[in-house]
Design a protein that fits this description.
The chain has about 180 residues and is of the alpha+beta class. The chain folds into two domains: about 1-40, no CATH class; about 60-184, Sandwich (Immunoglobulin-like). It is built from six helices and ten strands. It has helices spanning about 1-5, 15-25, 30-35, 40-45, 110-120, 125-130, and strands at about 65, 70, 75, 80, 85-95, 105, 140, 150-155, 160-165, 180-184. It has a five-stranded mixed beta sheet with strand order 4-10-9-6-7, with no helix packed on it. A three-stranded mixed beta sheet has the order 1-5-8, with no helix packed on it. A hairpin with a 3-residue loop joins β2 (about 70) and β3. α2 (about 15-25) crosses α3 (about 30-35). The longest helix is centred in the first third of the chain and has 11 residues, at about 15-25. The structure holds copper (II) ion. Copper (II) ion binds near residues 102 and 168.
């Protein structure tokens, strides 16, 4: 299995944590080198215990945009259209039946690789910060949301039109788990 991981025949996401823990016990550091840190659900899902943020000023009549997750690292929509300067409320529901953690981040046009690289570069520290890098390209993000949980994100759409993106910044997800946030 280690060889399959190393050569990319199977991905980290396909190895359940209980399997990873067993392999780690047997193989030790040679396993760590290939797999990296085992991400425990509990470390991230603590965010769900935080109180829900009160609605900020100016969002009373804001448009609600509901976004869900399909299996196979996909949002349930590929394109969201908004007006420049509009206020929107993203209601992000992680209804991915695979049980993985996901977030919804809004990023500037053309910055996808920059943001994904920055999220991966956070390493173990990323767990504490929900893999949300603090860089200007990332405009807003929900935390990592556990399966079955919902997070409301209040977002003031930029005044500058363009094809922004919405992505999941969890390492390994954002290359495919992304869509266009078109600001007109
Ligand atoms: Cu994800």
């Amino acid at each position: 299995m280690l060889e399959a991981l190393r050569t990319g025949k199977i991905s980290k996401a396909e190895v359940p944590n209980y399997t990873a823990r067993s392999l780690q016990k047997i193989l030790g550091t040679s396993f760590d080198k290939v797999y990296g840190k085992i991400v425990e659900m509990g470390e991230l899902s603590k965010i769900d215990q935080n109180p829900v943020k009160a609605r900020p000023d100016g969002f009373a009549d804001a448009r609600r945009i509901e976004v869900g997750v399909l299996p196979g690292l996909k949002f349930n929509t590929a394109r969201i259209v908004a007006q420049a300067g509009e206020k929107v409320i993203f209601v992000f529901l992680n209804d991915d039946s695979s049980g993985m953690m996901h977030n919804l981040a809004i990023i500037t046009p053309g910055s996808r690789q920059t943001v994904l690289d920055a999220a991966v570069a956070m390493g173990a520290e990323g767990l504490k910060k929900n893999f949300i890098p603090e860089i200007p390209e990332l405009l807003a993000s929900t935390p990592q949301v556990a399966q079955g949980m919902k997070y409301t994100l209040y977002f003031a759409v930029p005044d500058e039109p363009g094809d922004y993106h919405f992505i999941c910044t969890y390492p390994g997800h954002g290359l495919i788990m992304q869509g266009i946030f078109a600001v007109q």
